[in-house]
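agent: user wants the full assembly modeled, not chains individually. Plan: 1) parse entity lines 2) check alphabet per entity 3) run joint structure prediction 4) return tokens. Steps 1-2 passed, two entities, 417 residues total. Proceeding.
--- entities ---
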Amino acid sequence: MADSQPFACAACRPKGLCQGKGRVTLKGGSWANNPLAVQVLGICSALAVTNRLENSLVMGAALIFVTVGSNLFVSLLRKCTPHRIRMIAEVAIISTFVIVFDQFLKAFYWDMSKQLGPYVGLIITNCIVMGRAEAFALQNPPIVSMVDGLANGLGYAAVLAIIGFFRELLGTGEIFARPLLSGEWYTPNQLMILAPGAFFTLGIVIAIFNSIKGPKPQEKK
Amino acid sequence: MSETSAWVIFIAAIFTNNILLANFLGMCSFLVCSAQIRTSLGLGTAVTFVMFATTILNYVIYHFVLVPWGLGHLQFIIFIAVIAAFVQLVEMFVERFSPKLYFALGIFLPLITVNCAILGACLFMIIRNYNFLQSVGFGLGAGIGWALAILLLAGLRQKMRYSHVPAPFQGVPIAMIITGVLAMAFMGFAGMVSIQ
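--- prediction returned ---
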């Protein structure tokens, strides 16, 4: 079955786990339909936590964990979820994973949990997670849904890391609290750490994506 | 925290700690629905009302149900359920008593459920340890601040239709840049009052 599908990934070809949709899903989620830069979803957290690269990476990891987990369970339960209450079921599944991650942060990385503040909890209302559950996991089998969640999580985390990198670099002259731009010739631009810098950086990142991908970025998958 | 008056928090939530421009919450609907002043006014009103009511509801539930029973870690799921239920209730109410408003708001009402500003306001209220009056002031102020920001952006975007924006920047990117400028302007209020 997998042989007839040109896009089957090498890893799962014998079993046909993703039914040949693995690679195309991975690519679509992380690049062609990048949730942040192309679909412009879930930007709240992208703006809020990217003042330092470290925070951005943790937030990216949190989102990967939540999308993969929630996509898996939404997909597993898709046959026995009544259509009318699917939203609340999705929200319940997503919040479960968010609570797990939040408790994990609180238990092992208290400082990080303090810094991210309410934004970990706000993953629940992150449109990416809900959107993937609604648009993909409800119609697809579990494994490929997990791949889709992973792809979108990775796409989100990558853009977050880019924004976080530039904001921390230009805002403080440091990366991971290690000075990179020396104080002799570079004056840290405080504005990049504050709110306006976030808006500017994300605007420019999206514009660069647009110009690379050509004038029509809004194509359907 | 406890000595700050509710009035100060109300003002601060509108200007210095604007939930959209300083805390980046509610961006999704902010960008999508800010094309016209009329729709953004409708959405702003709806968000203000829902935020005001759910902050109070969630305050009561958190402090009188969750904390005594040691269920603080379930706050996310309870809050979002309360918000969803409340939005549903408002929707039915508006549909029954004011069909005109119902059609004007259209899809915005159900969308408010996943507006992160609402959940964010509830979470900030818990994290900053507000008492009841402060929560009321914060909920109302944050809602008004959000409505103010979306109205400002809608006005700017309407004017911008006549200007030449470079191709890659059209649409969302230029909206982000404008929002950045707005945020800079709001930073000018910084010395007025402060909460944190």
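agent: reporting back. Chain B has one domain: 6-187. Chain B has a mean pLDDT of 81.
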